[in-house]
Design brief:
The strands form two sheets. This protein has a two-stranded antiparallel sheet. The protein has helices at 10-22, 38-51, 56-59, 64-69, 100-112, 116-122, 125-134, 162-174, 180-184, 189-198, 214-226, 235-246, 259-262, 284-297, 307-318, 336-350, 361-366, and strands at 71-76, 79-84, 353-354, 359-360. 45% of the residues are buried. The chain has 369 residues and is mainly alpha-helical. Helix 8 packs parallel to helix 11 and helix 12 (235-246) runs antiparallel to helix 14 (284-297). It has two domains: 60-189, no CATH class; 199-369, Glycosyltransferase (Alpha/alpha barrel), CATH 1.50.10.20. The protein contains 17 helices and four strands. It starts with 9 loop residues before the first helix and ends with a helix. Helix content is 46%, strand content 4%. It is globular.
């Protein structure tokens, strides 16, 4: 039997590994703003390394204690909440600094580190669930990412959108919620689903203010999948969303050829990549968001999507084979975020990635996710 050609040569693979590991060492002063979200930095690097076949649990065993130290309990009046803070600088006395994104990043990082003991003996699912619960807005079912740092109520200045709805659901799924009753112990599932469905665009896809966006669409579909609520979308709505997603793939073929003449911003180097909205350039991260959404709606991905042009765009346009890593587009330098999602998109098309949780399939299966 003929084997598939590896995505990366050994030389390029090692460059990606070195690029990712550099972000786990001393970061330059320009990255100081990430101190409040170190869980994101660690997760992006670990997720990518794990997807590339690196043994995270063995290589970073000595860092397990530090990772666990970012899981904290904080009191609101007489109720105890728990979750992850962004890093040591956010462990502030008498101040609520838990956040939904850092909590999901922290949990999934410990999954990648195969820390079964944390989930069995350290994690307090009840208090973490209460934190998630407090982030839900009673008026529309959506979620904010943080609480008021003194009052412990859902922040009135934070945005509420599909990103945080997905993150809330993914957190609960990761700590063991599977049935509707499991989720309802902590959140109002009905109002959440109603909010998600209210974000549908008339032309397919999901987004705020009626404008579909690939990232928000992925969040909406992933949340519905984890909630086992995809059937809340009619067949027509699924079809419209699927068509909208497929149309986000930029090509220099067919009617797109006329773009070269009529649109000064069109660049044929975008061929094969995905844009996040209409009339935008291709961007590495949207390859993941779109491919993930398509795979949720139509699991037999390769019969619905031209995967080879996507791979070509990622490997020959946005991959940096000199320093390692992936960039947003062919003109820019590689960065950690786009490296994470570029590798995720490639592995998702290869069939070895759980897109709804954004971790390699082998890690998800080990924790029954």
């Amino acid at each position: 039997m003929q084997r598939d050609t590896p995505l990366f040569t050994e030389e390029v693979l090692q460059k990606h590994v070195k690029f990712l590991k550099r972000h786990l060492l001393l970061l330059p002063a320009s990255h100081q703003s990430t101190d409040v979200n170190l869980m994101a930095v660690v997760f992006y690097a670990f997720e990518s390394l794990a997807a590339l076949g690196q043994d995270i649990a063995t290589d970073y065993q000595s860092n397990l204690k530090w990772m666990r130290s970012n899981y904290v309990s904080q009191k609101v009046t007489d109720e105890e909440l728990s979750g992850f803070i962004g890093g040591p600088t956010m462990n502030i006395p008498d101040t609520i600094t838990l956040s939904l994104p850092n909590t999901l990043f922290g949990l999934l990082t410990l999954v990648l580190m195969r820390d079964m003991e944390f989930f069995d003996k350290v994690l307090n699912k009840k208090t973490l669930g209460k934190f998630v619960s407090r982030c839900q807005l009673k008026e529309n079912g959506a979620f904010v990412s943080v609480l008021d740092y003194k009052l412990g109520k859902a922040s009135i200045i934070d945005s509420h959108d599909l990103r945080f709805c997905y993150i809330a659901v993914a957190i609960l799924y990761t700590i063991g919620c599977r049935t509707e009753d499991d989720f309802k112990e902590y959140i109002d599932v009905d109002s959440l689903v109603e909010f998600i469905l209210s974000q549908r665009s008339a032309f397919g896809g999901f987004g705020a203010f009626g404008e579909a966006h690939a990232g928000y669409t992925s969040c909406a579909l992933s949340a519905l999948k984890l909630l086992n609520k995809l059937d809340e979308l009619s067949s027509l709505e699924k079809e419209k969303t699927l068509q909208w997603l497929i149309d986000r793939q930029v090509t220099r073929e067919g009617c797109w050829e006329k773009q070269d003449i009529s649109n000064e911003y069109y660049n044929e180097d975008d061929h094969g990549g995905f844009q996040g909205r209409e009339n935008k350039s291709a961007d590495t991260c949207y390859a993941f968001w779109c491919v993930n959404s398509i795979s949720i709606l139509y699991p037999n991905l390769k019969t619905m999507l031209q995967t080879e042009p996507v791979k070509d765009h990622l490997l020959n346009r946005t991959q940096n084979t000199l320093t390692g890593g992936f960039s947003k587009c062919y003109k820019e330098d590689a960065d950690l975020y786009h490296t994470c999602l570029g590798i995720a998109a490639l592995k998702l098309m290869e069939g070895s990635f759980n897109g709804a949780l954004c971790i390699p399939t082998h890690a998800a299966k080990e924790f029954d996710l």
